[in-house]
Design brief:
InterPro entries: Acyl_CoA_acyltransferase, DUF4081, GNAT_dom, UCP21603_acetyltransf. The protein has nine helices and twelve strands. It has helices at 16-23, 31-40, 44-47, 77-90, 101-115, 150-165, 174-186, 230-244, 258-267; strands spanning 6-10, 50-56, 59-66, 69-73, 96-100, 120-130, 143-144, 190-195, 198-208, 212-220, 248-252, 270-279. A twelve-stranded mixed β-sheet has the order 1-2-3-4-5-12-6-11-10-9-8-7, with helices on both faces. Helix 4 (77-90) packs parallel to helix 5. The protein starts with 5 loop residues before the first strand and ends with a strand.
């Protein structure tokens, strides 16, 4: 019997055609990595990390985004073991491991003995998809955020991030987080209801490809929660982003966040996959 040879190495621009084929096996689930690959063309100075490829007999079988986030792509069990060895050998320490639950949890089992308990393991996160406009009447107040409204929207972004992730996004690099929020506004990827200088609702497109985009940071002002604002507001966002960004809208949510899940279901999002996030 011939022995299968395998290797893990950092991918380069020469690997883009083969990597694109791998990512296109599941373009919605692999949206984040495809966005990073398309926007950086695997140039290290822009990527802020690497994308590793796992090869068997010279064929790209799996991949893994290794930067601030560790994100496995079409990862087999053998690939996960190889990626874990590479992570530990290169002393890579991301802030999170994110992706399909069936890949993230086995990868975390390999890393946890060396890294210790996770700060916040989120073991079941419905990945939800909507490929049409919502049946809910859209809230006409939702609109793209203007760059001169940065100082108005920014505190809501910080509040949402802190509430959701459990850490202050300014703790590491205040300028870095401010730059990211400004970038999303400039791209036309930030949407909100703003009245009298108060952010009532907001969300952003965090990543996009020609096929699909992913919403992040869905926020309703604490004083207004439970009043049915999120559904019509998200309906408006879906309509806007399908017109201007991509035809399919995705997001993922913590399984225990019942109010958010119900709101997304009312809008029309359907649970198609299950993600997991290990926050470190």
């Amino acid at each position: 019997m011939l022995k299968t040879t395998s290797q893990v190495r950092a991918l380069t621009p020469d690997d883009l055609p083969e990597l694109h084929l791998l990512l296109d096996r599941d373009p919605l689930v692999n949206l984040f990595v495809r966005n990073r690959v398309d926007s950086t063309r695997l140039q290290a100075r822009w990527l802020g990390g690497q994308v590793w490829g796992y090869f068997e007999d010279g064929v790209l079988v799996s991949a893994c985004h290794a930067g601030t986030n560790l994100v496995p792509v079409q990862a087999t069990r053998k690939a996960l073991r190889a990626f874990a060895e590479r992570v530990l050998g290169d002393n890579v320490r991301p802030s999170s491991i994110v992706g399909p639950r069936d890949a993230v949890l086995p990868l975390w089992e390999l890393l946890e003995p060396r890294w210790g308990p996770a700060r916040s393991p989120r073991l079941a996160q419905p990945f939800m998809v909507l490929d049409r406009d919502s049946r809910l009447t859209p809230d006409p107040r939702v609109r793209p955020v203007l760059i001169d409204e940065f100082d108005t929207i920014y505190p809501a972004c910080v509040a949402m991030f802190t509430e959701e992730v459990g850490v202050d996004p300014e703790a590491g690099s205040r300028s870095g987080y401010r730059a990211r929020v400004a970038q999303l506004i400039s791209q036309g990827w930030a949407f909100a209801i703003i009245e009298d200088g108060q952010v009532l609702f907001k969300t952003e497109v965090g990543a996009a490809t020609p096929q699909a985009c992913q919403l992040q940071g869905v926020y309703v002002h604490p004083d207004l929660r439970g009043r049915g604002i999120a559904g019509p507001a998200l309906s408006a966002v879906v309509r806007l982003v399908r017109q201007t960004v991509a035809p399919v809208v995705t997001l993922y949510v913590n399984d225990h966040n019942t109010p958010a899940r119900r709101a997304y279901e009312r809008v029309g999002f359907e649970h198609t996959e299950t993600f997991a996030s290990i926050l470190l």
